[in-house]
Amino acid sequence: MIDQLHLQNLKAWRDSGPVQLARVTMLLGSNSSGKSTLLQSLLLLKQTVASPDRTIHLNLGGDEANDYFHFGGFDAVLARGAAAPRQFSIALSFDRPESERVRHGRFACSYGQTTSGAVAIQALELSTVARRFRAVRRERGAYAIYVDDEPRPRGKGPQLAPERSIALPAEALALLGSDGTHLQDLSLALRRELEGIVYLGPLRRRPERDYVWNKTAPGEVGSDGHKAIDALLANALLPSEHQGSVLRSVSHWLQRMGMAEQLSVRAVGRSGRYELLVHHDGVVANLRDVGVGVSQVLPVLAVAYCAPPGSTVLLEEPEIHLHPLAQAVLAEVFAEVSQQRQVQFLVETHSEHLFRRMQTLIARRQTSTAQCRMLFVERRGADAVLVPLDVDEFGAVRNWPQHFFGDAMGEAREQARARAQRLREVTGG
């Protein structure tokens, strides 16, 4: 689980400060406030780790087939008006299961621009509770390698340049001797944490009438959810001890949302094609023929049950196209699945219904403020500012930003005033 994130000079974030994350973290705020950048910073590292070029320092994207996000050039990422030196940084800490060789780790990296325009690491720090390793850029692309608080570097040279932001090359590991093994374990733990990030964006693909299934289970549902149905087909059709479990779980939540009683899979002819059927109010219909809300929430529910335990799921606007009750039930999905399956959710949302239900779950002790954090992002001038919401054990918010969800009491007062005025006009009073 990623338990802390810190951005500096990255897009709208001059300095986010240490952002504490929980098993479920909800990001709220107005449009273009900077919420998405918090998620995108993790995707930036994930797509860097996945790059086929191990010598790359930071993959800003551009490959539509493989990258999650295209960040543009260095200047598009650097915060406007950033003072010299022109650098931005990303730091995070993570906590792995007890079975891992490295349970706790921290990553911090600052990036600058070379004279050729390329992004280059200026300083990389990888640490655990016991050890600390640093790679610091010197002149002409050389890097000095430091261990713990040693005043002198273990070595220096261009051959020691970091790889994919999270690791040092074989030459550096050999230079470090027995310490190199510890560093290698740390880099591997960080790599697994980043590879375990699953992203579902706000724009989900419309469903097809039927699907060709190649008898395999997809690794991810895709950032637009286009492989969600493949995942459901695989769970329904592949023989295993968990066969049908995901389909049943998704059906359960659709029933709670009042959108369907059951999902089922049916073969279409003998061509290896299948359709997903939605059972609701005694009617069985193809997914394509039901309301768009069902197809839009399916990837959200599928990723909740298909993401491997230990994953971090990034969700943007999971409530899109859902009616109020369904939006509220999403809070129950995140709270329950995060505890049962040990999956972390970072959720960017504008839904008052989702937020209010999470407050209710805290009041009912179905989750807690330790398990769920509410973060509000606002703009102050050109800068994004993070305001952690102070939620008590009864779900009440002590420092709620004024009028973010509108002024419900004010609307009620205005309706009463208008009603009284109209009654006076009718009665002539």
TrEMBL record:
GO molecular function, one term: ATP hydrolysis activity
Signal peptide: none
Pfam entry (one): DUF3696
Annotated ranges, domain DUF3696: 371-415
Domain ATPase AAA-type core: 249-354
Domain of life per record: Bacteria
SUPFAM superfamilies: P-loop containing nucleoside triphosphate hydrolases
Protein name as catalogued: ATPase
Taxonomic source organism: Acidovorax temperans
